Structures are given as C-alpha cells and as structure tokens.
Automatic annotation (TrEMBL):
Example of a GO MF term: oxidoreductase activity
Protein residues bound to NADP(+): Q172, G173, N174, V175, R216, R217, E228, G399
Catalysed reactions listed for this entry: 2 reduced [adrenodoxin] + NADP(+) + H(+) = 2 oxidized [adrenodoxin] + NADPH
Location relative to the cell: Mitochondrion
Keywords, alphabetical: Electron transport, FAD, Flavoprotein, Mitochondrion, NADP, Oxidoreductase, Transit peptide, Transport
Top-level class of the enzyme under EC nomenclature: oxidoreductase
GO cellular component: mitochondrion
Residues where FAD binds: A35, L64, L100, W392, G399, I400, I401
Name under which the protein is recorded: NADPH:adrenodoxin oxidoreductase, mitochondrial
Entry EC number(s): 1.18.1.6
Cofactor field: FAD
Organism of origin: Protea cynaroides
Family of the protein in this entry: Belongs to the ferredoxin--NADP reductase type 1 family.
Length: 487
C-alpha cells in the first residue's frame, strides 16, 4: 500500500509504515528549538511508524523561543503550545539535559537511530577580529539576550549598566533592535513579562540614557524589519536622532527600494522619524541614535579604565558593488571617528559550532547539505547516510520562527524520499533507539529531564510569576532547574 503526500509543493510517495509498529523508524532530533519541533511534528504526521526522540542540552525545551525572543514579545511565544502538543504525542519523547558532544557522541546516536536530524542552532558569535575586542564591557548580543532571558549559562553575566550612560550596539538587525529596546524601554513596561528577575533589577537601576545603533552600511541596507523598527521608534518619551544626510538615496538605493517593500517601509519609517524629531533631546530624556556608514575599526580603553572599554573607533564607509550585481559592501574611506561609551553589544550575527564527526563549513558556519541531507563531500555530493540537518545549523543564523517550518518541511521531504528509495532501511536493520539511549545515559550516570520534568519547571515558574504579577518567573540556575525537574 502506498500513501501520497504533498510536501513543499512536491508530490511525494512513501509506503504506509503502520505495519512497522514492532520495528519502528527510530528518529533522533538534536535540539528542541523551532526547527527541531517542526521536524518532529512533520515526521510524526507523515510517518505512522516513526518514533521520535528529541534531545536538548538544556533541561528546558523550545530553544530561542524561550531564550531569544524578547520578553516584551509574549504573543510570539504562543507557538510553544503547538510544540508541547508534539512533545506529548505518544510516539515522541523529550530528553532534556542531554548534550550532543558531551553526554552522547554523534557516532553513538547514529548507531542507535535510523535517522538523526541535527537542529542544534547557532550557539556562538561572529567576531569582528579588531583590536580590543576582548576588553571588559564588550558583550555579544547573544550573551546579553541570554542574560535577560534567564538562560542558565549566562544568568551570572552581570553586565555593568550603572557605570556609564552610553551604550553602543554594533549591527542593525532585529536582534540589535531587541537589545536597544530592552535597554531603553521603561522597566515598568517589562515588569509583568517573563524577563529574568536579575535583569529587571539591573535595568531598573541602569544609568544608560544614550544608545547608538551603528551600521556599516546605509539605511536602505539595514537588516531590520518594519514592525520591529516601528516598535523601537515608538518607545515612550524617547529622543531619536538620525542624520538626514544619511537618508539621501543613490540611484542604486532607489532601485533596491523599488524591488523590496520591507526595505521601502523601513526607509519611510526612518525618514519620518528623522523629520519629526526636535533638534535636541530634553534634559534627562533617553536617546537613540541611528548611525550609518561606520564600521568598527578598534575598541578604545583609557589607562585608568581597569581594562574596560571606553569607546569605539569607527571608519567611515561608502558602498561599493561587490561583484554580485545589486549587492553592496561597505568599503573603508580612511576617515575615522571615535564614539565614547562604557558598554558595547556586538549584534553582528550568531554562529553555529561543529561537533566531532560532523562535516562542517567553517567559512559559512553551517553544515553542508543538499535539501537537509548532510554532505560528506560537497564536490561529489556524497551524503552521510541517515544524517540530516535543519534550522539555523542548516541555513545559517537568519530567519524568523516560521522560516524553520518550511526548512523542516524540506528536510523531512528528503527523509521520506530516502525511505522510498531504500537509502534508509528500517525494516531490515532494527535499531535500539529510545531504549538504547536510556541505557547509554544510565551507564554514564546521566539523569535526563523528560517532558514531565519540564512541565514541573513550567508550573513552578508560572506559579511564582503569578505571585509577582509576571507571566512567569524563570528559574535561571542549572542546579535549581534540575532540582525542580527531578522532584
Ligand atoms: C535574540 C533573538 C530574538 C528572536 N526573536 C524572534 C521573534 O520575536 N520572532 C521570530 O519569529 N523569530 C525570532 N527570532 C528567530 C528565531 O528564534 C529563530 O529563527 C529560531 O529559534 C531558530 O531555530 P533553531 O531551532 O534552528 O535554533 P534554536 O532555537 O537556537 O534551537 C536550538 C536548540 O538546540 C539546543 N542545543 C544546542 N546545542 C546542543 C547540543 N550540543 N546538544 C543538544 N542540544 C543542543 C539548544 O539548547 C536549543 O534548544 C529571534 C532570534 C534571536 C537570536
Ligand atoms: N522580532 C523578530 O521577528 C526577530 C527578532 C530578532 C531576530 N529575528 C531574526 O533573527 C535573525 C538573526 O538576527 P540578527 O540581528 O542576529 O542578524 P542579521 O539580521 O543578519 O543582522 C546582522 C547585522 O550585523 C551586521 N554585521 C555583520 N557582520 C558585521 C561586521 N563584521 N561589522 C559590522 N556589522 C556587521 C549586519 O550588517 P550587514 O547588513 O552590512 O552585513 C547586520 O546589520 C534574523 O533573521 C532576524 O530577522 C527576528
């Protein structure tokens, strides 16, 4: 008997695997962010004989939906209800506190499962590679975001928000806007969200009044989207500064705007903000300055600053077509300008990290793949049998939550095609799957957190939160998370 399905606009056939219940297709997904959960959902729906285990290095699921999405974007986090329904499917299990690389090796997972899908995101940062990048007072946006979102690895970051009135954010993508908003928004408006308590306290005491949001290219090339820009421009009682000269459009800019509605909207919003602001801020008013055409050259410190950053030296830039028609790069002009500050947040993009035994493109920071099938050799197109990739680890660190849905559809379609073609042979080669994983973890004395353990954390966080009139009060230490989960 054959079943038909339409995946990603493509008609695809695969066998009905209902007869396989005694010999299921064992699938392990590494990472429980949007990419992992959408993949699990598609696998379970499309294959009645699939048994899906999702492992995550944290005791808590949902990846950046929990630890990235800003606390004042609660409506975005509703998607976790859909992911929870997937986790509660009787053919799905969650294994929190299990890390690929340290708890279990990739080769071991591949031995135990017919299909391993890597969905572990991008947990490191791009670096600028300029002088002074390791000074104190400089953080990546990832670190800062993990801190205010209560990620247990960064709850002790304690950025000093009291010794300076000025922060510089490098980059003009949506993460940069999130970070600017959190720094500048009245804390009263964050109080009822799920922001980590330590961050709320620190932001309430913050002396930061002025934030520079600096891009190496122009307003037409800014990486942010209109909704997010409108939000930051709409912060109550905020003085916005944009040099009107930066908003002048070259013929190439006009062409770029003509073909891109989002960019057009972003440019209109910036132009309106530049035109409608008074020429000076009021005394004590918080300020947001958009600076364009500046690329970081080096970080500054003074002799008596205890190794803390005191500013950034920028090189002014112009745009040059980079060989790829319509693509413009920032090129230095040899003119420099210093901006003083006591805090720098580098929001220039996330980066994935490889694990042992995984083909990895260090230049692009992704796992080489063809429609989600991991390639061991890109020149011949040779694939790693049974090994797939999805989400930020597959595409690089861009895209919103929903982008991972289409990405998961593509990867799952490849898995089903491989089943159909006999590249994967679950019927003739049984694998231990879940049972094997539990045994292995047990032999290493590693206690995993099942989904019911996460539900205990969830309940406790919501209960404490409701007492404080917050959506939830996040538990932010490893010790406490594991204690609550294992109760
Ligand atoms: C700061 C920020 C804010 C964002 N805000 C929004 C928003 O408001 N709206 C929106 O639509 N999109 C937003 N996005 C984008 C969205 O979060 C991403 O598109 C999405 O989370 C990427 O999904 P992923 O599953 O590939 O990675 P992730 O969400 O990062 O999930 C990866 C998972 O893998 C786990 N993991 C990592 N290493 C290992 C390992 N070795 N072993 C086991 N598990 C591991 C992690 O713990 C994590 O749970 C935001 C992104 C960022 C960075
Ligand atoms: N609310 C939301 O929907 C939301 C919120 C947060 C994040 N997200 C999504 O998450 C993804 C990641 O966001 P992101 O902001 O981290 O990445 P991003 O959108 O790729 O932005 C990165 C920024 O860093 C700059 N940059 C990169 N390398 C640089 C360098 N060497 N020197 C100076 N500047 C440099 C880029 O400038 P260039 O353009 O010149 O390269 C760009 O301004 C995006 O797709 C975003 O939309 C969505």
């Amino acid at each position: 008997m054959t079943k038909m399905a339409i995946l990603h606009g493509k008609r695809l056939m695969w066998r009905s695997f209902s007869s396989l219940s005694s010999n299921p297709l064992r699938v392990c997904i590494v990472g429980s962010g949007p990419a992992g959960f959408y993949t699990a959902e598609k696998m379970l729906k499309g294959h009645q004989g699939a048994e899906v285990d999702i492992i995550d290095r944290l005791p808590t699921p949902f990846g950046l939906v929990r630890s990235g999405v800003a606390p004042d974007h609660q409506e975005t986090k509703i998607v976790v209800n859909q992911f929870s329904r997937v986790a509660l499917n009787e053919r799905c299990s969650f294994f929190g506190n299990v890390s690929l690389g340290s708890s279990v090796a990739l080769s071991e997972l591949r031995e135990m499962y017919h299909v391993v899908v890597l969905a572990y995101g991008a947990e490191s940062d791009r670096v600028l590679g300029v002088l002074g990048e390791d000074l104190s007072g400089i953080y990546s946006a990832r670190e800062f975001v993990w801190w205010y979102n209560g990620h247990p690895d960064y709850s002790n970051l304690a950025p000093d928000l009291k010794s300076t009135d000025t922060a510089i954010i490098l980059g003009q993508g949506n993460v940069a806007l999130d970070v600017a908003r959190i720094l500048l928004r009245p804390t009263l408006e964050l109080k009822t969200t799920d922001i980590a308590n330590h961050a709320l306290t620190s932001l309430a005491e913050s002396s930061i009044r002025k934030v520079y949001l600096v891009g190496r290219r122009g307003p037409v090339q800014a990486a942010c989207t209109a909704k997010e820009l409108r939000e930051v421009l709409g912060i109550k009682d905020l003085y916005i500064h944009i040099q009107e000269a930066d908003l002048l459009k070259s013929p190439a800019d006009e062409e770029e705007l003509k073909n891109n509605r989002i960019k057009r909207r972003v440019h209109e919003l910036l132009s309106k903000a530049a035109a409608t602001q008074p020429s000076h801020p009021r005394l004590g008013q918080r300020e947001l300055h958009f600076i364009f055409f500046r690329r970081p050259d080096s970080f500054l410190r003074s002799d008596n600053s205890n190794g803390n950053v005191t500013g950034v030296r920028f090189e002014k830039t112009i745009l040059q077509e980079n060989g790829d028609p319509g693509k413009w790069s920032a090129v230095g002009t040899g003119q420099f300008e210093d901006l003083e500050c006591g805090l720098v947040l580098k929001s220039i993009g996330y980066k994935s990290v490889p694990v042992d035994g995984l083909p990895y493109d260090h230049h692009k920071g992704v796992v080489p793949n063809h429609r989600g099938r991991i390639l061991s050799d890109t020149s011949t197109g040779r694939i790693e049998q049974g090994l797939y990739v999805v989400g930020w680890l597959k595409r690089g660190p861009t895209g919103i939550i929903a982008t991972n849905l289409y990405c998961a559809e593509e990867t799952v379609a490849s898995i089903f095609e491989d089943l159909e073609k006999g590249v994967l042979t679950p019927t003739t080669t049984p694998k231990p799957g879940r049972e094997g994983l539990v045994k292995l973890l047990d032999s290493r004395n590693l206690r995993f957190v099942p989904f019911s353990g996460w539900e205990k954390i969830d309940l406790k966080e919501k209960t404490i939160g409701s007492l404080r009139n917050k959506t939830r009060e996040k538990i932010t230490s490893w010790e406490e998370l594991l204690k609550v989960a294992n109760k």
